[in-house]
Amino acid sequence: MSAIVIATFYKFVPLDDCQELQTRLQAHCEAISLRGTILLAHEGINATVAGNRSAVDSVLSWLRGDARFADLAHKESTASEIPFQRMKVRVKKEIVTLGQPEADPVHRVGTYVKPRDWNALIQDPDVVVIDTRNDYEVAIGSFEGAIDPGTEKFRDFPAYIEENLDKRRHKRVAMFCTGGIRCEKSTSYLLNQGFEEVYHLEGGILKYLEEVPEENSLWRGECFVFDERVAVKHGLALGSYDACRGCGRPISEADKAAATYEEGVCCPHCHATLAKEQRERLREAHKQRLLARRRQKAQPA
Protein backbone atom coordinates (compact mmCIF):
# COMPACT_ATOMS: atom_id res chain seq x y z
CA MET A 1 0.00 0.00 0.00
CA SER A 2 1.50 3.37 -1.02
CA ALA A 3 2.15 5.95 1.69
CA ILE A 4 -0.23 8.83 2.19
CA VAL A 5 1.42 12.24 1.87
CA ILE A 6 0.37 15.00 4.29
CA ALA A 7 1.22 18.52 3.12
CA THR A 8 0.94 21.69 5.17
CA PHE A 9 1.35 25.19 3.81
CA TYR A 10 0.38 28.79 4.38
CA LYS A 11 1.01 32.20 2.89
CA PHE A 12 -0.02 35.67 3.90
CA VAL A 13 -1.06 37.35 0.64
CA PRO A 14 -4.07 39.58 -0.20
CA LEU A 15 -6.97 37.57 -1.63
CA ASP A 16 -9.96 39.50 -2.95
CA ASP A 17 -11.70 36.54 -4.63
CA CYS A 18 -12.06 34.06 -1.77
CA GLN A 19 -15.55 32.85 -2.66
CA GLU A 20 -14.70 32.20 -6.30
CA LEU A 21 -11.36 30.61 -5.34
CA GLN A 22 -13.13 28.41 -2.80
CA THR A 23 -15.47 27.00 -5.45
CA ARG A 24 -12.71 26.21 -7.93
CA LEU A 25 -10.33 24.81 -5.33
CA GLN A 26 -12.99 22.58 -3.75
CA ALA A 27 -13.85 21.13 -7.15
CA HIS A 28 -10.20 20.47 -8.00
CA CYS A 29 -9.48 18.78 -4.66
CA GLU A 30 -12.53 16.53 -4.93
CA ALA A 31 -11.61 15.57 -8.50
CA ILE A 32 -8.20 14.30 -7.37
CA SER A 33 -9.51 12.59 -4.17
CA LEU A 34 -7.65 14.92 -1.83
CA ARG A 35 -8.83 15.34 1.77
CA GLY A 36 -8.12 17.85 4.49
CA THR A 37 -8.85 21.48 5.26
CA ILE A 38 -7.91 24.63 3.36
CA LEU A 39 -8.72 28.01 4.88
CA LEU A 40 -9.01 31.11 2.72
CA ALA A 41 -9.27 34.67 3.98
CA HIS A 42 -8.53 38.15 2.75
CA GLU A 43 -5.11 37.80 4.41
CA GLY A 44 -4.11 34.54 2.69
CA ILE A 45 -4.23 30.73 2.74
CA ASN A 46 -3.58 28.07 5.39
CA ALA A 47 -3.93 24.33 4.76
CA THR A 48 -3.30 20.74 5.74
CA VAL A 49 -4.19 18.21 3.05
CA ALA A 50 -3.57 14.52 2.51
CA GLY A 51 -3.68 12.09 -0.40
CA ASN A 52 -1.45 10.06 -2.66
CA ARG A 53 1.69 11.57 -4.15
CA SER A 54 0.06 12.60 -7.41
CA ALA A 55 -2.89 14.29 -5.66
CA VAL A 56 -0.67 16.39 -3.39
CA ASP A 57 1.57 17.35 -6.31
CA SER A 58 -1.52 18.26 -8.32
CA VAL A 59 -2.99 20.70 -5.80
CA LEU A 60 0.39 22.34 -5.18
CA SER A 61 0.90 22.76 -8.94
CA TRP A 62 -2.64 24.12 -9.30
CA LEU A 63 -2.05 26.72 -6.60
CA ARG A 64 1.41 27.72 -7.84
CA GLY A 65 -0.12 28.35 -11.23
CA ASP A 66 -1.69 31.42 -9.58
CA ALA A 67 0.90 34.22 -9.45
CA ARG A 68 -0.08 34.97 -5.84
CA PHE A 69 1.03 31.48 -4.77
CA ALA A 70 3.94 31.02 -7.19
CA ASP A 71 6.45 30.85 -4.33
CA LEU A 72 4.23 28.84 -1.97
CA ALA A 73 6.39 26.74 0.37
CA HIS A 74 5.12 23.55 1.97
CA LYS A 75 6.16 20.87 4.46
CA GLU A 76 5.47 17.14 4.12
CA SER A 77 5.07 14.06 6.25
CA THR A 78 3.72 10.57 5.49
CA ALA A 79 1.10 8.35 7.09
CA SER A 80 -0.30 4.87 6.56
CA GLU A 81 -3.85 6.17 6.18
CA ILE A 82 -5.59 9.47 5.42
CA PRO A 83 -6.25 11.27 8.71
CA PHE A 84 -9.20 13.26 7.32
CA GLN A 85 -12.75 12.20 6.50
CA ARG A 86 -13.49 14.77 3.78
CA MET A 87 -12.21 17.77 1.87
CA LYS A 88 -13.20 21.19 3.20
CA VAL A 89 -12.28 24.50 1.61
CA ARG A 90 -13.59 27.27 3.87
CA VAL A 91 -13.66 31.05 3.73
CA LYS A 92 -12.87 32.61 7.11
CA LYS A 93 -12.15 36.05 8.54
CA GLU A 94 -8.59 34.98 9.35
CA ILE A 95 -6.40 32.02 8.38
CA VAL A 96 -5.11 31.93 11.95
CA THR A 97 -7.39 33.60 14.47
CA LEU A 98 -5.88 36.39 16.54
CA GLY A 99 -8.80 38.84 16.39
CA GLN A 100 -6.57 41.87 15.81
CA PRO A 101 -7.12 43.34 12.31
CA GLU A 102 -4.07 45.59 12.62
CA ALA A 103 -1.83 42.51 12.79
CA ASP A 104 -1.13 42.17 9.08
CA PRO A 105 2.02 40.23 8.12
CA VAL A 106 1.55 41.23 4.48
CA HIS A 107 2.53 44.80 5.38
CA ARG A 108 4.54 44.48 8.58
CA VAL A 109 6.27 41.56 10.23
CA GLY A 110 9.11 40.86 12.66
CA THR A 111 12.70 39.98 11.85
CA TYR A 112 13.16 36.40 10.69
CA VAL A 113 15.91 34.46 12.47
CA LYS A 114 17.44 31.37 10.85
CA PRO A 115 17.50 28.20 12.98
CA ARG A 116 21.31 28.30 13.01
CA ASP A 117 21.22 31.78 14.61
CA TRP A 118 18.35 31.15 17.05
CA ASN A 119 20.42 29.84 19.99
CA ALA A 120 22.57 32.96 20.17
CA LEU A 121 19.50 35.21 20.15
CA ILE A 122 17.52 33.45 22.86
CA GLN A 123 20.55 33.11 25.13
CA ASP A 124 20.97 36.88 25.17
CA PRO A 125 19.81 38.00 28.65
CA ASP A 126 18.27 41.16 27.17
CA VAL A 127 15.89 39.14 24.97
CA VAL A 128 12.45 38.06 26.21
CA VAL A 129 11.61 34.68 24.64
CA ILE A 130 7.92 33.78 24.36
CA ASP A 131 6.27 30.56 23.17
CA THR A 132 3.17 31.66 21.20
CA ARG A 133 1.54 28.21 21.18
CA ASN A 134 -1.34 26.93 23.30
CA ASP A 135 -0.85 25.51 26.79
CA TYR A 136 -1.26 21.85 25.78
CA GLU A 137 1.43 22.26 23.11
CA VAL A 138 3.88 23.92 25.48
CA ALA A 139 3.26 21.20 28.08
CA ILE A 140 5.14 18.55 26.07
CA GLY A 141 8.11 20.67 24.98
CA SER A 142 9.57 24.14 24.50
CA PHE A 143 12.85 26.03 24.27
CA GLU A 144 14.98 26.26 27.38
CA GLY A 145 14.14 29.46 29.26
CA ALA A 146 11.11 30.37 27.12
CA ILE A 147 8.03 31.91 28.73
CA ASP A 148 4.80 29.92 28.61
CA PRO A 149 1.94 32.47 28.32
CA GLY A 150 -0.57 29.82 29.43
CA THR A 151 -3.02 30.57 26.62
CA GLU A 152 -5.79 28.15 25.71
CA LYS A 153 -6.13 29.58 22.20
CA PHE A 154 -4.17 31.98 20.02
CA ARG A 155 -6.65 34.83 20.31
CA ASP A 156 -5.81 34.96 24.05
CA PHE A 157 -2.28 36.04 23.17
CA PRO A 158 -2.91 39.83 22.89
CA ALA A 159 -4.36 39.87 26.43
CA TYR A 160 -1.23 38.15 27.71
CA ILE A 161 0.96 40.76 26.01
CA GLU A 162 -1.12 43.64 27.38
CA GLU A 163 -0.91 42.31 30.93
CA ASN A 164 2.70 41.12 31.00
CA LEU A 165 4.89 43.01 28.53
CA ASP A 166 5.95 46.65 28.57
CA LYS A 167 7.42 48.15 25.39
CA ARG A 168 9.47 50.57 27.51
CA ARG A 169 11.18 47.78 29.45
CA HIS A 170 11.06 44.82 27.06
CA LYS A 171 13.07 46.23 24.18
CA ARG A 172 13.83 42.92 22.44
CA VAL A 173 11.26 40.14 22.10
CA ALA A 174 11.72 36.78 20.34
CA MET A 175 8.80 34.46 19.61
CA PHE A 176 8.35 31.03 18.10
CA CYS A 177 5.62 28.57 17.09
CA THR A 178 5.30 25.21 15.34
CA GLY A 179 5.68 26.18 11.69
CA GLY A 180 5.80 29.97 11.63
CA ILE A 181 2.26 31.15 10.91
CA ARG A 182 1.33 32.24 14.43
CA CYS A 183 4.66 34.02 14.85
CA GLU A 184 4.11 36.09 11.72
CA LYS A 185 0.81 37.29 13.18
CA SER A 186 2.16 37.83 16.69
CA THR A 187 5.24 39.78 15.57
CA SER A 188 3.08 42.01 13.40
CA TYR A 189 0.82 42.61 16.40
CA LEU A 190 3.70 43.55 18.70
CA LEU A 191 5.20 45.95 16.18
CA ASN A 192 1.83 47.67 15.91
CA GLN A 193 1.77 47.95 19.70
CA GLY A 194 5.01 49.93 19.64
CA PHE A 195 7.57 47.23 20.45
CA GLU A 196 10.77 48.08 18.61
CA GLU A 197 12.79 44.88 18.13
CA VAL A 198 10.68 41.80 17.49
CA TYR A 199 12.10 38.52 16.18
CA HIS A 200 10.69 35.15 15.21
CA LEU A 201 12.10 31.75 14.33
CA GLU A 202 12.00 31.27 10.56
CA GLY A 203 10.28 28.01 9.65
CA GLY A 204 9.24 27.49 13.26
CA ILE A 205 10.21 24.75 15.68
CA LEU A 206 9.95 22.12 12.96
CA LYS A 207 12.67 23.75 10.86
CA TYR A 208 14.86 24.11 13.95
CA LEU A 209 14.46 20.43 14.87
CA GLU A 210 15.21 19.48 11.28
CA GLU A 211 18.37 21.58 10.93
CA VAL A 212 19.97 21.96 14.37
CA PRO A 213 21.84 18.87 15.68
CA GLU A 214 20.50 17.55 18.97
CA GLU A 215 23.84 18.03 20.70
CA ASN A 216 23.65 21.78 19.95
CA SER A 217 19.93 22.16 20.58
CA LEU A 218 18.18 24.26 23.22
CA TRP A 219 14.89 22.49 22.58
CA ARG A 220 13.60 20.37 25.46
CA GLY A 221 10.90 17.70 25.05
CA GLU A 222 8.80 17.05 21.95
CA CYS A 223 6.91 19.25 19.51
CA PHE A 224 3.17 18.80 19.02
CA VAL A 225 2.11 18.68 15.36
CA PHE A 226 -1.37 18.84 13.88
CA ASP A 227 -1.30 15.58 11.93
CA GLU A 228 -1.14 11.83 12.49
CA ARG A 229 2.39 11.99 13.95
CA VAL A 230 1.07 13.91 17.02
CA ALA A 231 4.58 14.86 18.15
CA VAL A 232 8.10 14.89 16.76
CA LYS A 233 11.61 15.03 18.21
CA HIS A 234 14.99 16.13 16.90
CA GLY A 235 15.51 15.27 13.26
CA LEU A 236 11.68 15.17 13.03
CA ALA A 237 11.76 11.61 14.37
CA LEU A 238 8.38 10.32 15.54
CA GLY A 239 7.60 11.32 19.13
CA SER A 240 6.13 9.30 21.97
CA TYR A 241 2.63 10.81 22.21
CA ASP A 242 -0.75 9.76 20.83
CA ALA A 243 -3.69 12.11 20.30
CA CYS A 244 -7.00 11.93 22.14
CA ARG A 245 -9.93 11.53 19.75
CA GLY A 246 -12.16 13.48 22.10
CA CYS A 247 -10.17 16.69 22.50
CA GLY A 248 -7.16 16.38 20.19
CA ARG A 249 -4.64 16.92 22.98
CA PRO A 250 -1.42 14.91 23.09
CA ILE A 251 -1.62 12.02 25.55
CA SER A 252 1.22 10.09 27.18
CA GLU A 253 1.40 6.49 28.37
CA ALA A 254 0.59 7.80 31.85
CA ASP A 255 -2.57 9.46 30.49
CA LYS A 256 -3.62 6.18 28.88
CA ALA A 257 -3.15 4.35 32.16
CA ALA A 258 -5.61 6.67 33.93
CA ALA A 259 -9.08 5.43 34.87
CA THR A 260 -10.61 8.34 32.93
CA TYR A 261 -9.02 7.26 29.63
CA GLU A 262 -11.13 5.43 27.05
CA GLU A 263 -9.41 4.51 23.80
CA GLY A 264 -10.78 6.42 20.84
CA VAL A 265 -13.17 8.40 23.07
CA CYS A 266 -11.69 10.53 25.87
CA CYS A 267 -8.69 11.18 28.09
CA PRO A 268 -8.10 12.72 31.55
CA HIS A 269 -8.18 16.19 29.94
CA CYS A 270 -11.68 15.89 28.44
CA HIS A 271 -13.36 13.04 30.32
CA ALA A 272 -15.47 15.39 32.44
CA THR A 273 -16.51 17.71 29.61
CA LEU A 274 -17.67 15.42 26.79
CA ALA A 275 -21.43 15.18 26.37
CA LYS A 276 -23.10 11.77 26.22
CA GLU A 277 -23.89 12.24 22.51
CA GLN A 278 -20.26 13.04 21.75
CA ARG A 279 -19.10 9.94 23.58
CA GLU A 280 -21.49 7.74 21.62
CA ARG A 281 -20.37 9.21 18.30
CA LEU A 282 -16.72 8.70 19.21
CA ARG A 283 -17.34 5.11 20.36
CA GLU A 284 -19.09 4.30 17.09
CA ALA A 285 -16.32 5.90 15.04
CA HIS A 286 -13.71 3.96 17.01
CA LYS A 287 -15.61 0.71 16.41
CA GLN A 288 -15.71 1.42 12.66
CA ARG A 289 -11.98 2.12 12.56
CA LEU A 290 -11.24 -1.18 14.28
CA LEU A 291 -13.50 -3.06 11.85
CA ALA A 292 -11.82 -1.39 8.88
CA ARG A 293 -8.39 -2.40 10.17
CA ARG A 294 -9.49 -6.00 10.67
CA ARG A 295 -10.89 -6.15 7.14
CA GLN A 296 -7.67 -4.71 5.76
CA LYS A 297 -5.55 -7.28 7.61
CA ALA A 298 -7.81 -10.09 6.37
CA GLN A 299 -7.27 -9.16 2.72
CA PRO A 300 -4.74 -11.33 0.84
CA ALA A 301 -1.40 -9.67 0.16
TrEMBL record:
Q: Which reaction does it catalyse?
A: uridine(34) in tRNA + AH2 + O2 = 5-hydroxyuridine(34) in tRNA + A + H2O
Q: What organism is the protein native to? A: Alkalilimnicola ehrlichii
Could you tell me the Gene Ontology terms of the biological process aspect for this record? Answer: tRNA modification
What the protein does comes down to:
Catalyzes oxygen-dependent 5-hydroxyuridine (ho5U) modification at position 34 in tRNAs.
Q: What is this protein called?
A: tRNA uridine(34) hydroxylase
Sequence ranges assigned to domain Rhodanese in this UniProt record: 123-217
Keywords of the record: Oxidoreductase, tRNA processing
**Source taxon at top rank:** Bacteria
NCBIfam families according to UniProt: PRK00142.1-4
Q: Which family does it belong to?
A: Belongs to the TrhO family.
EC numbers listed for it are 1.14.-.-
- Under which main EC class is this enzyme filed? oxidoreductase
Q: Which GO molecular function annotations are given, in alphabetical order?
A: oxidoreductase activity, acting on paired donors, with incorporation or reduction of molecular oxygen
Establish whether keyword 4Fe-4S is in the entry.
Answer: no
**What lineage does the source organism belong to?**
Bacteria, Pseudomonadati, Pseudomonadota, Gammaproteobacteria, Chromatiales
